[in-house]
Amino acid sequence: MNHFSYLTEQLASAQKPPMLVFFILSLLVIIFTSSHVNGQETTDDKLKQVKQAISKQKTNIKKVDSKRQKLVNQLKHDELEIAKASKALNTTNKSLTATQQTITKLAKEKKELTSEQKRQEDILAKQLRAAYSTGHHDYLKLLLNQEDSGKVQRTISYYQYLNKARIKEITNYQQTIEKIIDVTNEQQQQAQQLEQLQQQQQQQKLALEKSSRQRKQTVTELNQQLLNSKQQLEKLLAEEANLTEALERIARLSKQEVNLNGLGKLKRQLSWPVKGRISRSFGSRKQDYLKWKGVLLSAPIGREVKTIHNGTILFSDWLKGYGLVTVVDHGKGYMSLYGHNQALLKSVGDRVETGEPIALVGQSGGQSQPALYFEIRHNGQAVNPKLWCR
Question: Distance of CA 39 to CAs 25, 46, 47, 358, Å?
Fold first, then answer.
């Protein structure tokens, strides 16, 4: 094999790492310039140097790619840990809210029962005073009194009425006391639960902060692995191809539900999955000739992401370049995709209704700012979400 054939093959095999191509071309210029200037050094010697330099450059590129892949794997691990902690924290916060509402409700109920208790005590006091004021009458005298039997009967009936009223009020009073005791006990249990939830919340916050610090360090290291324009384009193309392949795969595996009617008749009728500013529009330039196939919605981290329409969860996992992604099947070939989430709240196979929370806004996938990446696809082709959401 002659020298030019060898160099041509090396150049062809180096198309993926552009820096290697540039390096080889530079060496070629040096070789042939030098060979004209200094005829004492043979081309074979120069070729040997080129081979050694190419081999060294390939080794360096391989090391860089290997390090970058390790960092990507570490990023995935960090973001999954963040998802785990934030999902648990979200659940705990909801439990805290529910518990606080229960405590408020119990306090109101206890206040009403205490007020009822006082009212019953007042009634019983009045009844006791009434009984005391007529207490000098002797039942036996009344029964032996033959002068006015009608009056005796009326008096006895009155006593019986008072006794029944007192018994009823005493029973009600006892029931009120029992309810107050029950409410007080439940208040104590709820207070203990609230304390436990608060401790749990604090632990989850610490875990989330730890994972977030680790992720920040990983992202910093990844950003230090600078890519030129062509490498950046190739990276984005690979990530997009990976997403497309994943969507095609889950579309093949999914079972179409006959009760899902798609989005065809819902143009301009759907709400956006999260309240936020559109920072990247559908069809705008992403890198070189690559364009955005969805929209990027800037929103605070942790804000709930809601499904635009009812459907079934087809995908719920981490994807390189897109972070934590969930995909909803709406039927009739329509899908919606939600990426860069902090946590995913639903699992594959879950049925979701319109407006139901399915994720939390994040910055997974190596993003520097929190945002939601949102796509709508029909039969595998990305369509402009603005045609459906308002």
Answer: 21, 12, 14, 72
